[in-house]
User: Fold this.
Amino acid sequence: MKDSDNSERTLADVEKTFYETLSKNTILSSVNRSASALEKLAVNTEALTQEIASANDSSTKLTKSLNRLTLAAVIIAACALALEVIKMCLAK
Assistant:
């Protein structure tokens, strides 16, 4: 009967360990941490999407401004070239 008591104690110890482990909720805690991390990731992704949209708008405005500046430079260079050609023609 002593062996029976030992096996019952061992079984009781195993049961106690099982419930202690379960009470710590290591799996649930891990799931909660994962959910929290996913939530933070979703928030960061949304913020990043807004930043990308803002950067895209700024880039579009900058591109338009640079294109206008380049066009103005080309027009000025063409006018300068035309004046040089006129000067050469009048000099002959």
About this structure: The mean pLDDT is 84. DSSP finds two helices and no strands in the chain. Residues 26-91 form the longest helix (66 residues).
